[in-house]
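Hi support team,

I submitted a single chain yesterday and got back a structure, but I'm not sure I'm reading the token output correctly. Could someone confirm the output below corresponds to the sequence I sent? I've pasted both exactly as they appear in my results page.

Thanks,
R.
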Amino acid sequence: MTKATWDLPRTLGALRNSAFSEDCIGDRSVKDELRHNLIRKLQCPTPLFPGIVGYEETVVPQVVNALLSRHNFILLGLRGQAKTRLIRMLTTLLDDVLPYVEGCEIHDNPYRPICRRCRNLIQEEGDDTPIGYLAAEHRYVEKLATPDVTIADMIGDIDPIKAARRGQDISDELTVHYGLLPRANRGIFAINELPDLAGKIQVGLFNIMQEGDVQIKGYPVRLPLDLMLVFTANPEDYTARGKIITPLKDRIGSEIRTHYPVTLDQGMAITAQEAWLQRPASSNASIDVRVPVYIKEIVEQLVFLAREDKRVDKRSGVSQRLPISVLENVVSNAERRALKSKEHLAVPRVLDIYSALPSITGKMELEYEGELKGGDAVARELIRVAVGKTYDKYFEGANVSQIVQWFDLGGSLKLDEGQDAAAMVQALGSIQGLMEKLKALKLSANEPDAVRASAAEFVLEGLYAHRRISRNEEREFGAGERKREGPREEGPPQRPNMRRQYN
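Hi R., thanks for writing in. Yes, this is the structure output for that exact sequence:
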């Protein structure tokens, strides 16, 4: 219901004669409200949950079914699968404003008050009872479940100070200090990582869900709350850190499984949507950023490979935050190089992906084999394979023998990490047949040097990925298979891409 703020009725008497009459909202629960607004949205061609990519045919229909069925539901999935983002968007299915008894801690329905304070107030004030309004975003309460959460945090507790000030018996309902659950009344209450919640707290949850009552310090308190309950959990947490008790699980209407992007295009769309790539110009430097499509594809391919790699723990998953962080780091490294070279265009190169290792290794949980090899080495190998797969998309079947032969005949080239684009293009142009191959990337002859330098380097990295040329730990490239990388020595981590030598 949309009404101008200044036109909203402010007393119970005025409320009865408005669009918020008792016939409209008197007995309507929050689940009925969500269902009603969902039906209205389904009849429109606009996306139901804009910004949620890849769930259109899988997760979203199941969420819709749960809401139409008026179910409390749980989203089960690995980290970085947009579970929290999805449940936060449920507020878009709530009314714009909702009337409640002004001053009430649990936002009581003016026509069906459940707390003693509001019942007494309406009995005394009648039609003059003041009315306040809740915006949709204020009707969402979220709690991260941790083992130290208490029943007082969730449900409430007896407040002896309140009892003493009012001269009331400590068992009186008016002495209760309400917890998060009652304060979410007439809204959506979400609990993240539900299995981490202690068993006795879960008991309190299902008791208030089903029977609408709870015992606080031994005193029974009747709280028939009007709530939509939504939970999230990692499937592995059922056995790893805790479990959902059977009575509570039985009262959760729908269990919905989430997933990672199924296709590379879906992953790239999510990353492009979330990554901070449009950098504002500073007062002392104006640098345009242009990210080639093949760089985006390599970053996304890296994540798909990591999710399938036996050295990476599949139970932990590889979050979709990884490509977002990596791409941001890649752009930052290109931006840093442009600043040093006093260039006005920053175009990421494959070497910048290696410079983004810190944003990769911290987001992958490794199995025993991966731990033995080391996170840095595993990440480098994944980048190499990702470059190879992306290279095949553009150059599969291409004749690159002229480039390889140039190295076989003793050609040599050294490239520094911070080398400016013009100098790099000049150096790469000396390699016979290299620059002609850039046509496969649909680059014109008038492209800026930064773009051409990135593309040419991508070709060389693709040849390395397929072992047509090789390089050592200092990123020195050689001919064929004669100079493969040796085992990495123990010691402090080396900074990648300091100098590359092709010979």
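A quick pointer for reading it: The first helix runs from residue 12 to 16. Let us know if anything else looks off.

Best,
Support desk
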